[in-house]
Design brief:
This protein is an alpha+beta fold. Helix content is 42%, strand content 20%. It is elongated and about 90 Å long.
Length: 469
Amino acid sequence: MIRVAGYCRVSTEKEDQIHSFEAQQRYFEEYISRRPEWHLYQIYADEGITGTSTKKRRQFNCMMKDARSGRFDLLITKEVSRFSRNILDTISYTRELKALGIGVWFMNDGIHTMAPDSELRLSIMGSIAQEESRKTSDRVKWGQTRQMERGVVFGHSLLGYDVKDGKLMVNPQGAEIVREIFYKYGVEKKGIGTIARELQEAGYLTFSGNIRWSSSYIMKVLRNEKYTGDLVQKKTITPDYLTHEKKYNHGEEKKIVIKNHHEPIISRDLWELVETEIEKRNLRGSFQAGHSHRYGLSGKIQCGECGASFVSRKRYRKDGTAYRRWGCLTAAKEGRRHRDPQGKEAGCSVGKMVSDDLAFSMLKEVLRSLRMDEKRMIHQTAAAAAESILAWQDEEMDGIGGDKKSLTAVLEKNMEEMIFDGSNDEILCRILLNHMTVYHDGHVEIQLNHLPQIWIFTINVDHPSRHRQ
């Protein structure tokens, strides 16, 4: 008795496809029952799943697991395109099944993988199925782009707006919260952590219905241009039709931008005020959601010529280990100094790069130069940092403790380890360093939090040299 399994798949959940899905299952059951030497083991069926990848095809993966356990001897499926639209997957999985002694019978294509010429025929049919999938993907993307150009909204509802039939409709309750967030940040000059805490204490719910507000959530609201009435689509794209993985669009495809597309929630004046405030706080090195939470030096290094923050770039040593180098954002965007159409100098000429190791080395030399009781300095700085952190309610500090005394103790212990043992440089920078300014001539000015002194270094490629204070 041959144990036979069937596999079927439909790629959408539309009603006509569901009927096809049920019909395929009935067909396999009837086809197998008409052969006395065959015994139906199981029918595996994936519904509403694409065939270009097996990653999310739960039943397909279950079928392969059962095959590896030797639970059936033959697999039947309607055609190659139902099995997979990825030629590499088609060949890979049929080869594996064949090695397990399991043949695959593609009924409509007339291909049995135990036949000598099966792989050649499979390659041809699999290539055709994959090419058809590519064409379908291109047609869908083209159609979606044309709809976006006409103003049809692709995406989900968000705080302040409901998406219905491709349109953004103002949700009054959510819109009021959005206005409050923008007003608190732009007019009242409150931090994102403070805003999150106040909304939470007031009992407001996030869009998802959760009472847990976070700094990153607030920043996401403040950065969303939809609240001004503008629509920007294609912020993310799916460059590979086989994997269907979404990626941020960094210029690979043209974004669809429509001004004054829908009813705004906030005025453009308030939007501009908030954007300006965000930029100011970034230049001052304030805690923000995103990049500045990842690295201790984020927002801490400034250009002495144009005032822009330094940004990091990952580099690799000869031994393969990675490190970061920091350079002026303006210089990175515009290149070295040049002349504009009126003949005036423009751009930024600060080409000095500062590595993490160099920055940490200068900061530690500053700490060693302090003429004061190190224990007292650590305690005072930790206490001041704890007070600021509790005011910000920075979400990265969750779990340390809710009162100033316990938080100060934790910070004090960590700072002692960092200063005396040389560890945890990232946190050391975040807590102690106010800013580091790099100038064109190679000198660097360093100022610590809560101290008036400025330390000046001259930097070269390898080592800093402190020459005055």
